[in-house]
Amino acid sequence: MVKAAGKSSIGATNSPDELFVSAFLFQNIGSFSTRFSLPSFLKQVKRLTVHQSEALQKTGFGNLLSIPNQRLNKSLLDELMRRWDTNKQAFVLPRGEISLNLMDIALILSLRVVGPPVSLVNSIPFGDLERDYGAVIWKRKITVTSLESKLNSFGDLCSDEFVITFLMYTFGTFLFPNANGTVDSRLLSYIQDVDSIRRFSWGEAVLKDVCNWLDQRKMKSVKYVGGCLLFLQIWSFEHIDIARPALLGSSVSFPRVFKWDKSKLHSKQQIMSQFKSLHNDQVTQELQLTSWESEIDIIKELLEAQSNEKEHSEVENSCVNSPIDCESEVDTIKELLEAHSNGKEHSEAENSFVNSPIVIDCDFGATPQMMSPIIIEVKSVSKIIHKKPKLIRSASQNDANTIITIGEEEDLRRRVKMLEEKIMELQKENVELMGENEELRKDNKLLRLSSDNLVLEIVNSSLYISSLIQQLDDRFCNL
């Protein structure tokens, strides 16, 4: 059973089964502590009216309102964290490795994992809404206790402000809890338009946050661990047959967090022993979809996105990871095609080129993996120019490069077009990155000005206080 580190903020005595613990009090979980508090979240859920629940359903977080109360299995979570590998981004088990993925978060919590990302970058402008919730530009944080107080003040009122406040409270206690009992106020920029909340990839953000806390726990041995620990626990039940509770047998099986009964208590020695004797048949690497789950919208769009990504990757591998600096190489290939289409016959060139690979040297200017030359093997071009372009050389057997076989002129032209499109795409991305960089410079300048003004105000205040003290001393001396 999870015990609170102090008294509940509500002032009531909590029963062992209910485990209602205030969001701003730490819970001792084995050798670490956390502000994750499902009971605090569920306590607010119980207060919702029908209209408030309906409004929250429209944001994409509706299934969270029906999550059953769960105990955090302290021994299991502690052992999982110990087995996390930061380099591999996976749990290392006796029989192999297993990682967290987007399908896991979609199936377990029913959160969308496709769409615009939720990224808390400094370039997000500081807005009036953040100020209204108590954040300041040099510390963009909102306390969970202030959100709880604000929620209690709404009563039965259902408004956009209520929805925003409830979601921020959900972030602070359930989805993105941290070690300080606060919520990043930049999240308000993603939920201030209530009608657009559901379009963002909230599940992906939860997954990244969990992985970040696993990294911090492993690398820095942090005592207070944040992140959605319930997701991590249900993930373990789904993938690893250790310390699993009973299945509820309910007709509602999606999301999968609904399937599992409350976790039973296990000693640390029991969990460690079970991990050491783990067999392959106790581990499920990839969760299998049921026919019903495959028809759910957020699952369908993830499957479609994965399929598109796979096709895109195959196209890139069959062509070239073409960079911005390859325009000259593309021009070279065009010369070959133009000469071929003009019907120039050069038997000597044909004999030296046909059925032998040629290499196009290209400085990709990106990553080391992209620095290899491109080898193009020409098999069926019967007419080709005799003049060898400057950037083309014969390929040796030692060239370990990507080989692209071109059987027909049309195929070669298609590949040239793909290279040109890739070049334009990268040029566009470069322009966008330059724009973002400029925005970051502006934000940095604004922060420096704010910091300077703050320091100036502190200095002026200190001078004013010193002046008052001097006046009091003078009056005291006169008396």
Quick recap:
By secondary structure, this protein is an alpha+beta fold. It has helices spanning 38-46, 50-61, 74-82, 102-109, 128-132, 144-154, 160-175, 188-191, 202-220, 229-239, 268-276, 297-318, 327-341, 347-353, 409-478; strands spanning 3-4, 27-29, 32-34, 84-85, 90-93, 96-98, 141-143, 182-184, 356-360, 374-378, 392-394, 402-406.
Tell me, what's the shape? globular
How many helical stretches? 15
Helix-strand pattern: EEEHHHEEEHHEHHEHHHHHHHEEEEH
Query: How big a fraction of the residues is strand?
Result: 5-15%
Strand order of the largest sheet: 11-9-10-12
* Biggest sheet features: 4 strands, mixed
**Global mean pLDDT:** 78
Low-confidence stretches: 1-30, 346-406
> Can you tell me the number of structural domains?
2
- Overall number of strands: 12
- End-to-end Cα distance, whole Å, is 66 Å
User: In percent, how helical is the residue content?
Assistant: 40-55%
Class based on secondary structure composition and strand pairing: alpha+beta
- Radius of gyration from the CA trace? 30 Å
Describe this structure in words.
It comes from Cannabis sativa (Hemp). Residues 409-443 form a coiled coil. Keywords: Coiled coil. Residues 60-284 form the Aminotransferase-like plant mobile domain. This is Aminotransferase-like plant mobile domain-containing protein. Residues 1-30 and 346-406 have low confidence and may be disordered. A four-stranded mixed beta sheet has the order 11-9-10-12. It has a three-stranded antiparallel beta sheet with strand order 1-2-3. It starts with a strand and ends with a helix. The chain has helices at 38-46, 50-61, 74-82, 102-109, 128-132, 144-154, 160-175, 188-191, 202-220, 229-239, 268-276, 297-318, 327-341, 347-353, 409-478, and strands at 3-4, 27-29, 32-34, 84-85, 90-93, 96-98, 141-143, 182-184, 356-360, 374-378, 392-394, 402-406. It has two domains: 23-295, no CATH class; 416-478. The chain is 47% helix and 9% strand. By secondary structure, it is of the alpha+beta class. Helix 4 crosses helix 9 (202-220), helix 6 (144-154) runs antiparallel to helix 7 (160-175) and helix 13 (327-341) runs antiparallel to helix 15 (409-478).
